[in-house]
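ok so dumb question maybe but i'm new to this and my supervisor (M.) told me to 'just get the structure for Exonuclease' and walked off. so i did the thing. is this what she meant?? sequence i used:
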Amino acid sequence: MDIMDASLLIIGVILLALGYLIGVKKQTWLLSGFNEKRVKDKVKLAHLVGGANVLLGSILIIGAVVDVKSVEYLVMLVVGVMVSLVIFVNVKMVE
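this is what came out, is it supposed to look like this??
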């Protein structure tokens, strides 16, 4: 396992842990810039963001274990989904 695979594995585990804490345990204070008074549905936000983190963390872990050759595309996918999620949440879920 080279350094890139180890990095993907570490980031994947962190995203899985964050996904669990946000999605299952509803620890929304972990979200940067979270203002409870502005969010329409706190539970829906927690499920959406937590689920996305679990999915992306799983993709990164699988990519590290399988030894994906195009790591750049995998990272671009994860960043793209995260940016899209931030835009969606700010447009649809925040007042």
